[in-house]
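Work Package 4 report. The design task specified in the project plan requires that, given a folded chain encoded as structure tokens, an amino acid be chosen for each position. We show below one input record used in the internal validation round.
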């Protein structure tokens, strides 16, 4: 299987920027990625963050992208399953599967922040159970002509989801692994995983990925599973420019994330409260040198390629979701140049 190079896109919106401008700028970047040979564009799901993103409806965005592209795959990274009714979601995803002519990859997860759950009126303490039931309903309703299910949160009686999936048995599913216990759980299900280093470090991924693959094999699935790394990437013309140009954006991102994480420790239903608070405080005081070493990949096409090849070898990666504009403050012309270098000079050396 060829190495998959994609970008992770939040459809950034800067403070004070008009929504229409944010959409137009992001679609211009997506159009360029199609021209420059990117394998897949991945869309975030973010709610109620007006100074960060307009990506509150990733399936709608994916549908628009699918109609303006012909080759590039479109991925969701990730749909927050407990916030949706699974039957409605099943119908919308198979509709998008047809609109994209089978180019959809459907990533799912829970989200680690309770604030959105509170806004939607969904208890965060129920997120794991709701996620498991929703995923079971999606897979069952897509693979069975008539489907029934009775769980604690959802009941389905003898329904046929229409349209039926174009991809068989259904679009590829990938699951976000965050806490250590989710890695073997996803491995046992036999599904590919997304991994990331927003809260931890790149070094911490190795043991968790090993646990995923051990559980994958122990459950009797073929192969060893597939692992896709989401990581901020910035490619510059020189090492100095690559290091300097995204610094302000990256540092603001981690400080904001740290504050959100610390706040989430006080929210109802949050797990690992002490660890959340501790990591939140650490992110708010992180040094740029530490972020460069542990969390992000910046450099020239040559050095970025070398760093990614090293991680591919150490972690056994099957692909990368290169976060295009971590923090959302990198000027558009520099984002576009970084994207072009990624697509034309980094990705071909990894495939």
């Amino acid at each position: 299987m060829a190495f998959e190079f994609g970008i992770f896109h939040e459809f950034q919106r800067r403070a004070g920027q008009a929504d229409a401008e944010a959409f137009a700028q992001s679609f211009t970047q997506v159009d360029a990625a199609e021209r420059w040979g990117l394998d897949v564009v991945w869309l975030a799901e973010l709610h109620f963050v007006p100074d960060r993103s307009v990506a509150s409806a990733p399936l709608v965005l994916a549908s628009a992208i699918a109609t303006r592209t012909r080759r590039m795959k479109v991925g969701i990274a990730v749909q927050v399953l407990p916030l949706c009714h699974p039957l409605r979601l099943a119908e919308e995803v198979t509709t998008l599967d047809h609109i994209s002519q089978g180019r959809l990859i459907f990533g799912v997860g829970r989200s680690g922040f309770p604030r959105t759950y509170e806004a939607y009126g969904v208890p965060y303490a129920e997120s794991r159970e709701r996620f498991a039931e929703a995923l079971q309903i999606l897979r069952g309703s897509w693979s069975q002509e008539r489907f029934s299910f009775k769980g604690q949160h959802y009941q389905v009686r003898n329904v046929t989801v229409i349209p039926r999936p174009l991809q068989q048995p259904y679009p590829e599913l990938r699951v976000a692994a965050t806490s250590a216990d989710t890695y073997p759980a996803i491995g046992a299900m036999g599904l590919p995983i997304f991994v990331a280093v927003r809260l931890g470090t790149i070094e911490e991924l190795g043991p968790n990925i090993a646990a995923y693959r051990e559980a994958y094999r122990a459950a009797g699935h073929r192969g060893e599973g597939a692992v896709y790394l989401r990581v901020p990437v910035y490619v510059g013309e020189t090492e100095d420019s690559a290091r300097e140009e995204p610094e302000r954006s990256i540092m603001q991102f981690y400080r904001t994330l740290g504050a959100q994480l610390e706040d989430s420790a006080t929210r109802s239903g949050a797990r690992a409260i002490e660890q959340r608070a501790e990591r939140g405080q650490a992110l708010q005081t992180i040094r740029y040198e530490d972020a460069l070493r542990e969390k992000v990949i910046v450099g020239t096409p040559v050095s970025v390629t070398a760093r990614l090849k090293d991680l591919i070898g150490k972690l056994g990666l099957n692909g990368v979701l290169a976060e295009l504009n971590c923090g959302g403050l990198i000027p558009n012309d520099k984002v576009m140049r970084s994207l072009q270098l990624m697509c034309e000079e980094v990705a071909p050396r990894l495939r």
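The longest strand covers residues 227-235. Validation will be extended to a larger panel in the next phase.
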